[in-house]
Amino acid sequence: xxxxxxxxxxxxxxxxxxxxxxxxxxxxxxxxxxxxxxxxxxxxxxxxxxxxxxxxxxxxxxxxxxxxxxxxxxxxxxxxxxxxxxxxxxxxxxxxxxxxxxxxx
Length: 105
Known about the structure:
single chain; alpha+beta; two-stranded antiparallel sheet; 2 helices; 4 strands
């Protein structure tokens, strides 16, 4: 399935996405539109599983699919940075006290 995706570019006039993306943090539900940031359109191929996950995330958060993809890329960048520098990421399921190590491949 091909889905057009709009990726926010922080530095106007810069070719490609580069390193101009903001660090993960809470973004307005309105998304990047209307904030004066330049946009770059890209096309991605999503598996059925990824497409279903994207829809669930968008439904849960109330964000557009574009905003959800932008946030996911920024969070992945952040987590990848932590693990590439030797750090670790742990999660705790609701109703549990046990921490579980997240392994990224």
